């Protein structure tokens, strides 16, 4: 009986740790990496004016697309996942930021997983 409770407790702890380290976009990033286009409804106000909280966004894999300043991308910067803007490009580095003035930092093409192609209510 005690070992069953201990096992259940351990499984629950592993589940909690996995969810802490698995951020909101991990599932979508995996699909984009396998070539699938994804849709989801991001929450928050960091992209206000471009994407309102809860709007349906379509994000397509980067593939051979050329990225440019102003594109909205699903990416990772310093370990955090964002659906934010490309604010600047320097060679093979991309500066990522939101639409209300915050800069997240620089990343490279290997940490940009998808391009927002459509925003709908």
Envelope shape = globular
CATH topology: Umud Fragment, subunit A
Estimate the mean pLDDT confidence.
88
* Helical stretch tally: 2
List unreliable stretches of 5+ residues: 14-20
Major beta sheet, strand line-up: 1-2-7-3-4-5-6
The helix-and-strand class reads alpha+beta
**Number of domains as seen in the coordinates:** 1
Separation, N- and C-terminal Cα atoms: 52 Å
Second-tier CATH architecture: Ribbon
Walk me through the structure.
This protein has 121 residues and is an alpha+beta fold. The protein has helices at 2-21, 26-33, and strands at 38-40, 56-61, 72-77, 80-90, 93-97, 103-108, 112-120. It has a 7-stranded antiparallel sheet, with helices on one face. The model is unreliable at 14-20 (pLDDT under 50).
How are the SSEs placed, and which strands pair?
Layout: H1 2-21, H2 26-33, E1 38-40, E2 56-61, E3 72-77, E4 80-90, E5 93-97, E6 103-108, E7 112-120
Antiparallel strand pairs: 1-2, 2-7, 3-4, 3-7, 4-5, 5-6
